[in-house]
Amino acid sequence: MWQAVPRPTSVTVRTGPTAFAGRDEELAAVVEVLTHRPAAVLVEGEPGMGRSRLLAELARRPEFAGGRVLRGICQPLREPFPYGPVLEALHAAGERPLGSLSPVAGVLRPLLPELAERLPPTPEPLDDPGAQRHRVFRAVRELLVACGPAILLVDDLQWADEGTCDLMRFLAADLPPELAVVAAYRTGAQPWPGPLGAPVRAAPNVHTARVALGPLDVAAVRAMAVHVLELPRVSDEFATKLHECTGGIPFVVEETLRALRNVPLPAGEGLSDQLLENLEVPAPLRESVTERLAALPADAAQLTRAAAVLAVPAEPATLAEVAGLGEESPRAALLAALAGGLVAELGENRYGFRHPLARKAVYDTVSGPERTLLHTESMRVLGSLPAPPSMLLAQHAYAAGHTEKWLHYAEAAADEAIVHGETSRAIDLLQAVLPASDDVGRLATKLSQVALRGFRPDVIETLERVLEDRLLPPTVRGTIRLSLGMLLVRTIGRLERGREEVERAVAELVDRPELAARGINLLAQPVDGLTPLSWHEGWKRRVREVHSGLTDPELRLMLTVDRIANASHIGDGSAWTEFEALPDVGDSMAERVQLARLWCNLADAQSWAGHLGRARRLVDEGTRRASDAGALYAIGLIQGTHARLAWFRGEWEGLAEAAEDVRSRYPELGPIVMETSLVLGGLAAVRGEFAAAAEHLARASVPADGPIPVVLSAASVQIGILLAGDDVAGACAVADVAVDAARRKGVWVWAASLVPAAAEAFVRAGRWSDADAFVEEFARGITGRDAPLAVAALSAGRAVLTGARGKHLAAAAGFDAAAAAYARLPMPYLATSMVERAAGLRLLAGQRPAVDALSAAARAYERLGATRDAGRCHHLLREHGAWAPSQRGRRGYGSELSPREREVARMLAEGRTNREIADGLFLSPRTVEQHVAKVLRKLGARGRADVGRHLPSGNAAVS
């Protein structure tokens, strides 16, 4: 709940209109109608929906550039000028030559002095006011006819004077043949006879449309955020939160974004939900709200302030009771508040604010004493409900200064949040009440247990402070320490410290075997760090010993879940059979959390084993289960698995952006940072962006702390990059470290990606014995394991050794076998690389037909987006005289960039030199120079550094 705080000094700079987003369909429909004359369009919408912006966009449309665009606005004046908006619009009529005019048009001379020289003489006035007014109407129509093709745009028609309404009705009955009229007006809560005070029927020959503007959707809000904040993209969570805070109302979205642009972000942090929660109400929005609030009758204003303090939609009787209104006035007060546009009906007989910022703006106008009174009244009213809302009561108690009631309601709200899987809310509440409570041990225990469902680094600090209190009983200390250790294990750089805390906790929980079992179970999990598998197996035996004596169904399920996932990780095929035999549904929320963990962890294990079809199904279902159960940590982990699975399967469209988004949302969660960095490094490598790839892969290469499958996979990509640059010594250095890590860990199925790469590095350095020993050690290590990816990698590794010994055709057959194995998984990039290797060896052996396979590999690389690999294939084809442009004829791209020029433009935007571009695309420097010149010319860029600003996003051709 927002609290009223003094507004800080600020400077807001406006830099022109924002991107026009979310109204493409409406704009296109209106343009289509207006191209058929005569035409009349009505545009309606509540305040802030963008009526005026739509009219402005119409005025700029190229379809109407050949005619006049006449614009007028009705002003909310106490005494409006007769025909004001129409006369304002007609000021621009003289910018081009006019057609012939009859003497009647001279009546406009006094009203339009700017056109006096173009109008006939003023006729003698008529004695009858009605006749004189009719003459003015005829003159306006005649002037519009003389304008030829024209669009008349009239905004804010709800403020039109009576004369303007009559004139517009007159015109609507017989529109000039080349005129299109667009009138925009504000709708409200009160019944309204129409924009002109009465229904209007256009003539049968008039093309008409009515457009009702509603709120923007999340996609349009995201587009506005990207434009105003000048960012390449914003996260889905931020866009959704922004949409929620602003109600999708364009004016509110724009002003909120302008305010955000002036807010300095904390170091290392980006846009977040919390940033929106704490945002000061933008000044234009605050002024609009306070102006409308001041115009309300006293009872309506009091009801509106009560609604702002209450903070949730409520029935009229509840609002009136909080506001302290008598029995006679609530209905009139509510009707007046609705008419003022601040309060709206948000459900059946429930009223509140359309968006939180409007509520906050009203809340800020409430004085301190009145706020305390209204919060206290809100507590009384809400507390008398059959099911009192604990969360709201806690907020009102806190705001009213009732500490004891706040502690009571906040803990009750946390308990409700735990039951409903709202993990973050529960953590926030418990962290808030902990410092003020006398029962620190009990609350810290509750906090430590719910924190395991998510990942909040701030909880670690809280629990460490609590453990400094030596008055806690050993069991309480052990319980809190156990959770602390489990949280530390998940944190970058704190794996060993976390395992130490867990071991200490197991010793402190000697009298609580069920709690100790959780710690023993964690120490049995082998995925992270270089601790040998044999050490974990010792703890695994202890897990089996304690499992039989456990009675807690959730704990028994947790141990079963981890046993299945761990067995699958090391290639034990029985794990999948045991998984299929488990029940799908848990009886409690805690059991549902454990089942969600199983699906998520098993997805990770099955993907590393090479069962990618299974992994895809597990990811989809695990995501749903984790979301339903509020298992936030599992949700984060499975997003990392999803990104890596997409990388494996060659589903690369938009993957880099998605992986970067996931990594930015979990900057301290080690497994997610490493897994997404692996994906980003792999994608950069296939594009030839070796410097960026090295930076990403460095974050994925933390063997002492991180998941070893990720570490070994990152090493394989690094070796490939180094070998591509002929740095054999560097590749061997990386291979030595990675091979040592694989041996120390002892889980050979995790070395699948490393085997071909390390074997290649060793044989190119002449280290035959090391290459042979590693490949055969890997072969022994995966014997009997359920790991199809490891089987494919073994074929590839042995083919590398065979080819290096000059047995080209035998090695080609080995690469064929590996290609087929990778394709079955499916891992299309690795399968294609095997096809390329086989084709290259056959060409070396003089088998000319292999060019067909090499051409197929080049096309497969291009479909994936692996531009550097495709370039390498084309280069080899040229060397063998087997590549030529398509005989169907080359497309003429004109002012558009060709596909090759788009690749060059993208690499220029990344700051690549011509030599780097040539190396990355396997082109000659001269060819690159020609492409660069064409890119600069077609984009209108002043130089290489200017290309990024002119290059649109996506893969569409550039005009």
Explain this structure to me?
Helices cover 60% and strands 4% of the residues. The protein has 45 helices and 7 strands. The strands form 2 sheets. The protein has a 5-stranded parallel sheet with strand order 2-3-4-1-5. A two-stranded antiparallel ribbon has the order 6-7. Strand 6 (343-347) and strand 7 form a beta hairpin. The radius of gyration is 35 Å and the shape is flat. Mean pLDDT is 88; it is low at 1-5, 884-890 and 953-959.
Short description:
The protein is mainly α.
Keywords:
959 residues; 45 helices; mainly alpha; single chain; 60% helix
Supply the helix-strand structural class: mainly alpha
N-to-C span? 49 Å
Strand order of the largest sheet: 2-3-4-1-5
Tell me the overall shape. flat
- Low-confidence residue ranges: 1-5, 884-890, 953-959
Q: Could you give the count of β-strands?
A: 7
The mean pLDDT is 88
Cα-based radius of gyration, to the nearest Å: 35 Å
* Percent of residues in beta strands: under 5%
Reported for the largest beta sheet, the result is: 5 strands, parallel
Tally of DSSP helical segments: 45
Q: Roughly what percent helix?
A: 55-70%
